[in-house]
């Protein structure tokens, strides 16, 4: 069955109308059951690849601050769950429900789709892990008396900022590499997902034309 997005007045007679949810369900099942995995590899495995990249960058960021603050085994699992596991889950959910959905429903332009994919990837792979790691690591260090600030009141914010800047300096190069890596990877995956979907649409159209031609030939034979 070939699926095409169109306005109500453009829909031909005899066409089956589907809601967005029905289209998503049909296409998702079709993609998952597609016999040749390599033909649709980006649609099948692209989002898990992006999610795995989030795990890598989040783990590196967490390990860096734990090591610099000398936390040892303090709060290892407590920090690992929100800093590493949760962002990777969010990335998978957002990429599937926003990026992949936009591709299948043909709602946005290719540049818009790639851009939103990059923002999701940078948010879940860099921004969220960095913020949650800094907050969580400093809380654990303070709770375990591994870190204390001399200032009081508003001045403690300035002291914290200076300490964080000095502590984070060795991470800057790796952060830059992660930002570039996430941006390029998300762009590449979204690009191939769009290519895979276009390939799938052409295959569906070809199959529909073959079925129409076969039906026409059967009618001709029966009329004879």
From TrEMBL:
<keyword id="KW-0812">Transmembrane</keyword>
<dbReference type="InterPro" id="IPR009801">
    <property type="entry name" value="TMEM126"/>
</dbReference>
<feature type="transmembrane region" description="Helical">
    <location>
        <begin position="77"/>
        <end position="98"/>
    </location>
</feature>
<dbReference type="GO" id="GO:0032981">
    <property type="term" value="P:mitochondrial respiratory chain complex I assembly"/>
</dbReference>
<keyword id="KW-0496">Mitochondrion</keyword>
<protein>
    <submittedName>
        <fullName>Uncharacterized protein</fullName>
    </submittedName>
</protein>
<feature type="transmembrane region" description="Helical">
    <location>
        <begin position="118"/>
        <end position="141"/>
    </location>
</feature>
<dbReference type="Pfam" id="PF07114">
    <property type="entry name" value="TMEM126"/>
</dbReference>
<keyword id="KW-1133">Transmembrane helix</keyword>
<dbReference type="GO" id="GO:0031966">
    <property type="term" value="C:mitochondrial membrane"/>
</dbReference>
<keyword id="KW-0472">Membrane</keyword>
